[in-house]
Amino acid sequence: MRQTEKRRLFYGWVVVAGAFTSFAVSAGVMHSFTVFFVAFLEEFGWSRADTSVAYSVAQLISGASAPLIGVLVDRLGPRLLVLLGGIILAVGLAANAYVTSLWQLILLYGLVMTLGANCLGLLVSAPLVSRWFVRKRGMAIAIVQSANGFGRATSTPLVQLLISAVGWRVAYLVLAVFMAVLIVPLMRLFQIREPGDMGLLPDGIAPSRTQGLSTSTPFFRGGVRQAPPHDWSLWEAMRTPHLWLLFGVYTFTGLGSFFVSLHQLAFAVDIGFDKLYAASVLGMGSFLTIGGIISIGTISDYIGREIAAILAYLISIIGVTCALFLVSPQQTWLLWLHACFFGVTWGARGPLITAKTADLFQGKHLGAIFGVISIGTGLGAAVGSWASGWIFDLTGSYRLAFVLSIASYLGGCVTFWRLRRPPKR
Q1: Which of its termini does the chain have fewer beta carbons within 10 Å around, N or C?
Q2: pLDDT digits (tens, 9 = 90+) for 134-167
Q3: Domain span at residue 162?
């Protein structure tokens, strides 16, 4: 009997699998905009800055709606939000097939689809996963965050292939049907919210190791009863510098990543690379994100979140530097280096920031706290994606945008390092 119990899969990993699937779907659908971006430029003749506005609005809405999503997940639970988000996202995808003007794209992608995707993403799953893991929190959240890379890697070449075969309007309808079919299965992956609902403890610790003590209020680490952590309220957290440092880290990370990300494919096509080839290379680079995020998130449990984050920033800087020297379609090796170094750490700061937030501000208001600091990533991503297009329209080059990306990553290194000491009440 005891051997059977030992071999039984801890349900927390089922929760991680559900969160990974949900996030992968939403990330893949939303990131496909980088491929549609090229199609919009060709069909409508919009400037790159104007076309980037829809993406920038999406990032702003993602950040601005984060506190609301965080409060809702604390009160209503993830299952209802996943159902609502799936419906909204499917409707937004279908409506995008009939876009004829820029304001429609901004409304549908920037607002409708973004709200739907937020209900399927990390804001909903991170507080849930954090309740199921303490010792392995960094690894568990990193696995969920790696869904971002998986979604990006699969969506970029597949959507490009779909657009080449049937056109971008039909491609949106296909994605809408795909999303509609997945709504109910995704919702069913979020059945149980707390380990205590199954008589379990975080990290799969056997209840017998608690020596009969209540599992609902004390904090257990390694099966030993510890002093209960302080239940941080949002207001208390906002009065510490640590919450605003986390906000700053997210902002710098959003800037550094999105000065490059949205325009990667357009940049490669401008140089002379074939669209499908470039999309495939960038997609393969994104596949490395899965291993990169999980590896960096896992080692952060051992070497600390700060050192792991700085390592991730430095690898990203190498990737952006490779793009600075890419000037010809004959430099395929340099495109691969850019895709691999930039791709392997895409999103790698996310689980570190999430895990660090859970480390610093434990309690039942974690979703709301996540929501507030997530405004930073929305702000940084919005400014970065739009400014990169504006810089191209102004100078005919992305070089300055890539330099600003490197500067933003360096700012993230400095800010994250200041989080190494816990906050005081």
Answers
A1: N
A2: 777 778 888 888 887 788 778 878 898 999 899 9
A3: 10-199+229-417
